[in-house]
Amino acid sequence: MSRSLLRDYRDSLRYPEFWLYATWLEIVTKYRRSRLGLFWAIFPAFVYSFGVGAFFAHLQGHDPMRFIPHLGLGYIVFRLVTVSLSEATTACSSHTSFILDGRVRLTDYILRVVAKALFYFLVALPVVAVALAIAPQFQPEGLLTLVPSLLLVLLNVIWMGAVLAVVGARFPDIHELIGSVLMFSFLFTPILWYAEQAPTDTLRGGIARMNPLFHLVEIIRAPLLGEPLERFTFVYLAAMLVIGWGLAAWAYRRYARFVPIWI
């Protein structure tokens, strides 16, 4: 029997008990064993924002007060997307017992992965808020775009997660491949550099703008820091949303029913 991606996501959001509780339990169990608890969830964002940010600012001759929030925001958005996509490749195989027991609404497992990544994003926000507070280029009106932009990013993440979950169930090696691709894509995402350093009319600028993470990061960060947001970013993300959901709905309807056999 074929499954509908939109219907399964709708049902998962209407009945979130499984994936919300599973995410909460995993996080609580992980940090309850640690003496410093949630400090370790905040620590990477602090190190990247103020440690790596200050280092690369001086290395490239940038003003640290301007570069630190640029890197901090870029890092937490990049981590939100890449952690979701990387773990989506093993979302089905990690829940084999549930699926074989008849719980074949795969969107529950995808949303569990995204919810965990979103938790780390939200936990890191206070660190970035401190960086923004000392940033001379901070645009308070940019906060009005934060929720819509984050929603746009998440809508793209969950269709990509659905595709990768099904493909990952069929080809387990996709996890290693996606991990390597995402690691390499860090260099083509404006986190350690500014978007204007790779102009659109250059080869390196064109290559960088083919990277979806370039636009997923920029749509959230640029309004907050008063950085120019290219019109191409809106076109790219809108096209990716429409085409991506169409592709994901087809792939899910066609192949999701085979996942219990593949795993």
Automatic annotation (TrEMBL):
InterPro entries in the record: ABC2_TM
Q: Where is the ABC-2 type transporter transmembrane domain?
A: 21-223
Q: Kindly name one Pfam family recorded for this protein.
A: ABC2_membrane
GO molecular function term, any single one = ABC-type transporter activity
Q: How does it sit in the membrane?
A: Multi-pass membrane protein
Q: Where are the transmembrane segments?
A: 38-59, 71-92, 113-134, 146-167, 174-195, 233-252
**One GO BP annotation of this record:** lipopolysaccharide transport
Record's protein name? ABC-type polysaccharide/polyol phosphate export permease
Lineage, highest ranks first: Bacteria, Pseudomonadati, Pseudomonadota, Gammaproteobacteria, Lysobacterales
